[in-house]
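Subject: Sanity check before I submit

Could someone independently write out the C-alpha cells for this chain? I want to compare against mine line by line before I put it in a report. The sequence has 263 residues.
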Amino acid sequence: MMSQPADIPFNAPIVERGVGFFETVLVAGRRAVLWEPHLTRLGATLRRFSFPGPDREKLESAARAAVSEASLAAGEERALRLAWIAVGPDLDVPASWRLDVSIRPIPESTLTRRTGCRVTTLPPWLRRDTPEVKSTSYFAAIAGLRMARKSGADEGLFTAPDGTYLEGTSTSLIAWNDGRAVRALSWFLPSVTAAAFLSEGDATAPLTREALRAGSLLCGSLTLAVPLVALDGGPCVVPAAMDERIRDFNRRLLSDPALGTML
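---
Independent answer below. Compare away.
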C-alpha cells in the first residue's frame, strides 16, 4: 500500500487560504483520458502566476503508481486527482509546495448526469473568485452544487453580471446553436473536455436562457459530454444532431488512442 501523505500544518496556505491547484483526470483501466491537455493546463496556470511546478517525471511516476495500486479492470473508471498545494509560507520556494496524487471513485451524482442533466440558475452574487483558474479555492463551486441539489437539480450554472450563463460548478457549458456550438465570451474555466468537443467552426457569444433551452450541453472530465434536459424546471430541447455528436464524442473519449495516455 502507498503511504499516507504527511500532515499539513493548520496555518499552511492551502488550509488558511485555499492556495493550490488541481486536475481531475478520468482513468479507464490504465488509460488516462486527455492526460496531456490536463497537464498542459496545470503547467500554464502555474506559469501564469510564476509559481514553482511539480517535476514532470515524478508526477507521472506517482500517477502510474496510483493507477497500479488501484488495479482497475479494463474499462473500469475512476477519478485520478493531481493536486499541487502550498504547505509552506514562501510560495516562491519549491519546497513550500507538495504534490498529492490519488485515485477516487467517481461520485454517484456525477454518473447520474451522464443520462441527461437538470440544471438550475445560481444566484448572481455567487461566483468563483478566479474563474479562469482551476484552483483549490473552491467554495463557490461547492456551495453552488449544494444549492442545485437542494432545488432538485444535478448541477448549478454561474451567471455573468448581465444575466447570461457562464459555466457549471464543475462543468463547461456549450449552447448547440443549430450545430455551430457556442461558449460564453469569458470568465469561465477553459475546459479540457470542452476543447476536445469543440471544432474550429464553433464560436463564442453570450449564452442566454433561450439559447440553452433550444439545445445545450455540459462537458467535464468525469461527466463527459451530456445534454441539458431541464433548466430551472423547464424542459430543454435535445436536438437529434447534438445528441448524436455527444454520443460519438463520449465513445471516442473512452476509446480513441489519440485522446488518452496509458499510465
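---
OP: Matches mine. For the report I'm noting this point. The chain has eight helices and 14 strands.
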